[in-house]
Design goal:
Helix content is 51%, strand content 0%. It is an all-alpha fold. It is elongated. The chain is built from three helices and no strands. The protein has one domain.
Length: 45
């Protein structure tokens, strides 16, 4: 049950769930920022 609750509840530091934090970190590593050209999400994940 602890795994389910840790995935479902947002973190208190930033309010993101673990999946969203992982996606944002992958975008940061590949230099995908808000001011760049549109890119499909399948290429990021």
């Amino acid at each position: 049950m602890s795994v389910i609750s840790s995935r479902a509840l947002p973190d208190t530091r930033d309010g993101f769930k673990p999946v969203l934090r992982r996606i944002l970190f992958a975008m940061y590593q590949t230099n995908n920022f808000y001011n760049q050209k549109h890119k499909k999400s399948a290429r990021i994940v």
